[in-house]
Amino acid sequence: MPGELRLEGVGRRYGVRGPWVLRDVHLHPAPGTLTRVGGPNGTGKSTLLRLLARLDAPTEGRVTGTPRTAYVPERFPAALPFTALRYLTHLGAVHGLSRTAAERAAGYWLDRFGTGGHAHTPMSRLSKGGSQKVAVAQALLAEPELLVLDEAWTGLDTDARAELDRAVAERTAAGSAVVFVDHDPRRLAGLADAEYTVGDGTLRRRTAPEPAAAPVGPHLTVEVRGPAGELPAQALRLAASAEETADGTHRLTVPVSHSDVLLRVLLTARPPWHVLSVSPRGGAR
Predict the structure, then answer these.
(1) What is the pLDDT of residues 226-255, one digit of tens each?
(2) InterPro entries annotated for this entry (predicted)?
(3) The sheet that has 274-280: what strands, in order across it?
């Protein structure tokens, strides 16, 4: 599709004779997919994400495609002359929302991340965690087609991290591409459609899985029955595992943070799937 973002032979260095931070990068985050980027500190991960967000321009190669893009930086400029609600409302208007729609979306995301009580607090007076919640909210309020997250979970409390996990699942289920970097190898473990490593100025796709990490948070087992054929592709992306236990009956294991999105996908499919049971993994129904 013309709007999909592609990096083609991209390189980046700072200064005419500066060392290459990245070289010969090819990357295409497809709609509806989750892409993880890993690698040691200082290898160019943040530079790569800024190129994806079109906040930086390549020294060589080209970036094509113009999806509606949102970006959460590693360091968010918190000392801004706005309240949280006014800042988000302003950004919503920049994204093309009416003022009423922008204010409604701003309040919705502040509430979802547990900071609605600070809607009228000046940004400069928010805690680090409060500022990070605003940073995440500003990226989500306009329903981006490409969501770029650079250590976006850092500074968030446990509930807000789970809410961001849920929001990522919602965006991919809605057809958005999500690219993220996070220092915790357990973050969204096993859910990425593609994983890359940055090192020595190059981007390499990881072909062999890393050793399994303990999943973040509890999981649920969901049993469903539906029409003949495979489960919806969106449901398979959200589930950590899926197996057919009988003709038309499937058992899925899903992180709790993704469960409501999974159920919505199944129940709104045409024709809908029937949910037979939902239980803690290994627990009673």
Answers:
(1) 876 678 887 887 888 888 888 789 999 988
(2) AAA+_ATPase (IPR003593), ABC_transporter-like_ATP-bd (IPR003439), ABC_Transporter_VariousFunc (IPR051782), P-loop_NTPase (IPR027417)
(3) 241-246, 249-255, 219-225, 274-280
The tokens of 168 are what? 């990522």
Q: Which residues contact 65 (CB under 8 A, 6 or more apart)?
A: 2, 3, 4, 5, 6
DSSP conformation class of 227? S
Kindly give the pairing relationship between strand 6-13 and strand 20-27.
antiparallel
d(C-alpha 243, C-alpha 126), whole Å: 46
What single letter denotes the amino acid at residue 59? T
Q: Residue 253 in 3-state DSSP?
A: strand
Backbone angles phi, psi at 255, to 5 degrees: -60, 140
The separation between the first and the last C-alpha atoms of the chain, rounded to the nearest angstrom, is 43
Quickly tell me which residue has 């495979």 as its tokens.
Answer: 230
CB 102 within 8 Å of CB 89 = yes
Helical ranges in 113-244 per DSSP H: 128-140, 158-173, 233-238
What the block records as the tokens of 228 is: 């003949």
C-beta of residue 82 within 8 angstroms of C-beta of residue 123 = yes
Structure tokens at 10: 């991209």
Domain boundary assignment for the chain: 219-280
Phi/psi for 128 (5° steps) reads -60, -40
Residue 201: CA count within 13 A, CB half-sphere: 12
CB atoms within 10 A of CB 227: 11
Please state whether beta strands 194-199 and 34-38 pair in parallel, antiparallel, or not at all (unpaired): parallel
Cα–Cα distance measured from residue 149 to residue 34, given in angstroms and rounded to the nearest whole number:
11
Using H for helix, E for strand and C for coil, what is the string for 164-201?
HHHHHHHHHHCCCEEEEECCCCCCCCCCCCEEEEEECC
